Structure prediction request, 832 residues.
Amino acid sequence: MSVAAELDGPAEPFRLSQLFYDQRYRSITLQIITIAVFMLMVSWLVTNVIQNFEDLGKTFGFDFLWQPASYDINQKLIEYSSVSPHWKAAIVGILNTLVVAFLGCILATIIGVAVGVARLSKNWLVAKLMTVFIEAMRNVPVLLWILLASTVFSSALPSPRQAPVMLGGGFVPTNRGFYVPAPVFNDGSIILGIIFIASIIGAFIFRRWAAARQARTGDILPVFRITMAILILPVFVMFFLLGMPIGLELPELQGFNFQGGLYIRSSFMALWLALSFYTAAFIAENVRAGIQAISNGQSEAAYSLGLPPSRTMNLVILPQALRIIIPPLISQYLNLTKNSSLAIAVGYMDVTGTLGGITLNQTGREMECLLLVMGFYLIISLLISGAMNIYNNSVSLRER
Amino acid sequence: MSDTHAETVRYVATHELPALPAPVNTRGPAAWARANFFSTPRDTILSIIVGGLIAIGLWKLLPWLVFDSVFVAGSLNECREIDSGACFAVVTSRFNQLIFGFYPPELFWRPILAFVLMLVAFAPVLHDNLPRKMLWFSAVFPLLAYWLIWGGTIWGPLMIIAMIALAFVAFKAVAKSVNPVVGLLAAVAVGILWMLFLHDPIVSALSSAVNVGLEPVESSKLGGFQITFIIGVTGIVASLPIGILLALGRGSDMPTLKMICVGFIEFIRGVPLITLLFVASTLLNYFLPPGTNFDIVLRVIIMVTLFASAYMAEVIRGGLAALPKGQYEAADALGLNYWQATRLIILPQALKISIPGIVNTFIGLFKDTVLVSIIGILDPIGIMQPIRSSAEWNGIIWELPIFVGLVFFIFCFLMSRYSMYFERKLDTGHRN
Prediction:
């Protein structure tokens, strides 16, 4: 009892300056000042907004979302026409954002990993070529790449009548867009789908069994080849037994334009390719850094244990490198998603183009529209970074 | 016994043997080529394929890009008549627009002077063997540059300097007699009061008495790389201190301060810059007192700075987290208070660790300035479209992006190289 009381010293009357000089009170004082200043600023901003809205005769509300949008969107994944309400236009935009972000992440990962590994090549030409690619991509604004791709696709490509038909009708670049074969699903394609899903499950079961067997007996099966066989063979056999239920519809030139097949707008293509290549350069650097961060001792130790190179890579190098690569990789995905809002520069109707663009201009609801658009991107960001945190916790080194 | 010994030592060197030449296979260009191009059969095939592709690419590209390109012509048609290559005449003939936007040509000396002075102002920051007194010029430079570019009366910038001096005096006086925190509040109060009530009357009175000034230029006349530099450099200079404060706030043990900082950082990092620029162009006026209408360039600079400072804060937080705990404890053990410890022990090391990230953020900010073209500011990318749709240059595709991209590449590449040099220079050789 007495020690603490003695340390507090003789009971002095409270002085005002103690609020600043006494450690017991200072933190609280400063926090109160912080909150006060913050609240003052917020209330100042809010009163300004209310005053300005009153002066302009504006109201705040989201009822405009149910009015007809009365504009068309050229790329839509769901039913939408110009009489649909604004909220539906926003959904179309959100889906378009997600499509280009998703496909962009896939392509960027493929290119980025390939370039990052190639940059570490012992071959001088390959390594330097990849360095040039990375530096050129990273040091030029992505908006410039997007605009360049869009200009080239719309002005330098031939008109449909002169367009080259590549890969036997598989790919037709024209100045109006790109035509690729569309898949056609006939009767029996559902059966094929079910078989495919079943073989995926089968492959998983086989891998678990093989791992358990290896743990029990020490025998190693050729897991990769058998998995591939399980995945491909049944589908392949059934595909012909069912009389080829899934076919391809090739684009064909009819009159001035191509008919049939899948039509990809050049605005989408420009955005997708530019974003993917730009992000790939950053991913390549992350991959290179991740691989270089694993010390030589790791692979030497694995070799001295008698592991062949492929197993060294799969069991020793990659698991450690991935732990370093994946967090920055995911933040690159996040960047790509946010950069996809540059779609507005090439007329691809993503959420910034519909809700933050045309809807905003038509209804004059800047505050509401921008709040919604920002909210959408915020949710995506928080979801992705939440997933990243879970991953980080699951792979982080258990330190004792 | 001696016989055996005589048999084992058969040869004793009496003079030093000359050094043998190094093996041919490990030195010289041939060996280098062998190691880098032809070390294995697979490598050889790869080298031949890649080298062939590069050669074909250059063979096709170089005539268009260099040998047959045209640098002086009045229109695209003239270009095509002169030669078949790239028409860089569009860059030379519209060079002033690409650099200065629609700035009045007779006043070009002002932005040029500002740019040269900017290099002078950056010099003492980037090279520490220059006299430290030059930093005073660096401190005055922002106002000088503002005056040079936008023009107007000189009393505006001078009175801002007077305001800063006054606020500093107030801070010193109050901090000495009462308390540093109260001193800071007093300085801020002096600044706000000055700007609200005194600034405009004093400036107008002084300029009506002694009219010293430059011809004013409106913001809408600014464009090209000039605006890129105005936004980029201001953003870079302002985002670093704000980022440091945000990072310190995020690491603070005061929950309210921490929450505000975290909220701000996560919000800014979660939304794309373009939405913030939309806020700047359409929404910001709603948040200000009725009747205020301040410059779009300034609004954009504020948004870009806030955007970059959130990223900066995360980079610096990484640096702070990477410092060993012993450094914090040693500072405490020396009896330093929070600001002393931060200024003398923590920040110098944390900033050094985070240099690569800081410069990456700078480069990102510099590249991100082109987004202002979407809200209608005529930066180099914004000015490309009117040039492409003009009668003379209709149909030009590659040349403008090549020029603009090259300029961006040069500056961003220089920044990244400088950061590597700086990192090496600061490297003390001992880790942690």
